[in-house]
Design brief:
- This protein is an all-alpha fold and 65 residues long.
- The protein has one domain (2-56).
- The protein has helices at 2-21, 26-36, 41-56.
- Helix 1 runs antiparallel to helix 2.
């Protein structure tokens, strides 16, 4: 049980830091990370992708290095 709680807290911290770097709502993603844990990763990746597409435009090419 301790490892599950530790996993959810780690996911919460990960989502908080990554959403802050991606200019998403950090508090919202931190709370979602503590509630859903690693099950929120697909939603987070899609939110990052949509935010990047909104910022750069939908018809532009994005090269990630």
């Amino acid at each position: 049980m301790f490892y599950i709680i530790l996993l959810f807290l780690t996911c919460s911290l990960y989502f908080y830091v990554e959403s802050f770097k991606s200019a998403l709502s950090a508090r919202q993603w931190g709370a979602l990370g503590i509630l859903l844990g690693p099950m929120a990763i697909p939603m987070f990746m899609m939110a990052q992708h949509v935010a990047m597409r909104k910022a750069s435009g939908y018809n532009n090419l994005i090269l990630k290095a």
